[in-house]
C-alpha cells in the first residue's frame, strides 16, 4: 500500500485471525495529481480487505458531504474523489466542518472512511489540536469479528434437491426412532438424520480465498458494466489522456445507471415476494446489516468469564431455569 502513495501510514489490526485495515492519509492542497494515487489506494484497499478504517486530512475543501456534491465539473479531482468512494462502496462519515480559521470559511477537510456505515458511532468534533486550526475528531469504531469465511466449504441451499430430501425424511419411521427417548435423545436423532440428508442432497461450494459474496441484486450486465468501467479507469491511469478520461466517465455513468436499475428491480422482487417467500426479504435484510451484534462474555457462578458459545448458552440456560423454578 505504501508504494502507491508516500504520505500515508497503514497497519493491520488483527484479532482472532480477523483483520481490519487501519490507514491515515494526508494530501497537500497544492498537489492535485496526488488525488489519483489516493484513489488507487482506495481501489487496492477495497479489493484486499473486507473491513477498513481510513482517516486523514484530504483537503477536499469544496465537497459538500451532506449531499456528496461539488461546485466543480466532473473533470475536477474532487468529483473524481467522491465517485471513487462510491465505486468502492466506501462511506465517508464526516459532514461537519473540521478546520476553523479566523475570517475564513469553515471546511470539512478531515474525513473518516469505512466500508460499512454502521461502523462509526458517537462521532464528535472537539477542541482544536494544539495551535493547529484543525479540530480533534473522536468516535467509536464498532466492529464485530464475524467476517466472511473464505476458502471454507459452504452449503448452497438454492441447489438443494428438496423433493428427494422431503421423500427421504417422510420415509423415516419417527415413532420407532423416538421410542423410549427423552427430549435430548430425540433431538440428537433428528439432528443426525437432518445432517445426513444435508450431506447427500445439498450441493457444496468452495469459495476462492479472499473472495467476497456478490450483492444479491447484482446481474451479469452489471458486472460487465463495472468491469468495463474499471478497465477504462486503468487505461486512464496509464495514459493520463483527456480522451481516456472522457471514455471512463461514459463507462462510469453507464455502470452507475445499471447498478441503480438492478437494485431497484431486485427490491421490487423482494417486495412482491415478502409475504409468500419471506426468505427473500430476510436475506436482503441480512445482506444490509454487516456489523452484527453478538452475546458478550458472561460471568459464570465461579466468577470467571465464559470463553465459548457453549459456556454462554449454559450460563443463560441455568439462569432461565432458576427463574422458572424459583
From TrEMBL:
<dbReference type="GO" id="GO:0061343">
    <property type="term" value="P:cell adhesion involved in heart morphogenesis"/>
</dbReference>
<dbReference type="InterPro" id="IPR005135">
    <property type="entry name" value="Endo/exonuclease/phosphatase"/>
</dbReference>
<feature type="coiled-coil region">
    <location>
        <begin position="245"/>
        <end position="272"/>
    </location>
</feature>
<protein>
    <recommendedName>
        <fullName>Endonuclease/exonuclease/phosphatase domain-containing protein</fullName>
    </recommendedName>
</protein>
<dbReference type="GO" id="GO:0031012">
    <property type="term" value="C:extracellular matrix"/>
</dbReference>
<keyword id="KW-0175">Coiled coil</keyword>
<dbReference type="GO" id="GO:0007508">
    <property type="term" value="P:larval heart development"/>
</dbReference>
<dbReference type="Pfam" id="PF14529">
    <property type="entry name" value="Exo_endo_phos_2"/>
</dbReference>
<dbReference type="GO" id="GO:0003824">
    <property type="term" value="F:catalytic activity"/>
</dbReference>
<dbReference type="InterPro" id="IPR036691">
    <property type="entry name" value="Endo/exonu/phosph_ase_sf"/>
</dbReference>
<feature type="domain" description="Endonuclease/exonuclease/phosphatase">
    <location>
        <begin position="22"/>
        <end position="137"/>
    </location>
</feature>
Amino acid at each position: 500500500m505504501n508504494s502507491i502513495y508516500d504520505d500515508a501510514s497503514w497497519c493491520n489490526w488483527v484479532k482472532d485471525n480477523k483483520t481490519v485495515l487501519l490507514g491515515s492519509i494526508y494530501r497537500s492542497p497544492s498537489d492535485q495529481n496526488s488525488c489519483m494515487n489516493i484513489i488507487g489506494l482506495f481501489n487496492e484497499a477495497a479489493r484486499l480487505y473486507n473491513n477498513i478504517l481510513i482517516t486523514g486530512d484530504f483537503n477536499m475543501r469544496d465537497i459538500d458531504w451532506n449531499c456528496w456534491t461539488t461546485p466543480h465539473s466532473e473533470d475536477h479531482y474532487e468529483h473524481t474523489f467522491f465517485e471513487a468512494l462510491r465505486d468502492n462502496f466506501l462511506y465517508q462519515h464526516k459532514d461537519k466542518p473540521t478546520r476553523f480559521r479566523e475570517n475564513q470559511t469553515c471546511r470539512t477537510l478531515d474525513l473518516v472512511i469505512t466500508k460499512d456505515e454502521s461502523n462509526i458511532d458517537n462521532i464528535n468534533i472537539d477542541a482544536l489540536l494544539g495551535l493547529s486550526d484543525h479540530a480533534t475528531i473522536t468516535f467509536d469504531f464498532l466492529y464485530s469479528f464475524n467476517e466472511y469465511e473464505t476458502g471454507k466449504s459452504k452449503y448452497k441451499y438454492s441447489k438443494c434437491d428438496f423433493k428427494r430430501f422431503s421423500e427421504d425424511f417422510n420415509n423415516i419411521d419417527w415413532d420407532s426412532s423416538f421410542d423410549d427417548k427423552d427430549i435430548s435423545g430425540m433431538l440428537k436423532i433428528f439432528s443426525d438424520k437432518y445432517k445426513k440428508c444435508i450431506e447427500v442432497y445439498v450441493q457444496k461450494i468452495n469459495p476462492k480465498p479472499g473472495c467476497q459474496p456478490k450483492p444479491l441484486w447484482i446481474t451479469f450486465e452489471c458486472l460487465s458494466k463495472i468491469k468495463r468501467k474499471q478497465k477504462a479507469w486503468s487505461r486512464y491511469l496509464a495514459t493520463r489522456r483527456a480522451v481516456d478520461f472522457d471514455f471512463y466517465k461514459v463507462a462510469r455513468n453507464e455502470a452507475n445507471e445499471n447498478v441503480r436499475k438492478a437494485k431497484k428491480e431486485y427490491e421490487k422482487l423482494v417486495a412482491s415476494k415478502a409475504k409468500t417467500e419471506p426468505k427473500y426479504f430476510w436475506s436482503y435484510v441480512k445482506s444490509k446489516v454487516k456489523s452484527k451484534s453478538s452475546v458478550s462474555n458472561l460471568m459464570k457462578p465461579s466468577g470467571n468469564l465464559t470463553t465459548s458459545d457453549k459456556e454462554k448458552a449454559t450460563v443463560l440456560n441455568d439462569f432461565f431455569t432458576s427463574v422458572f423454578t424459583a
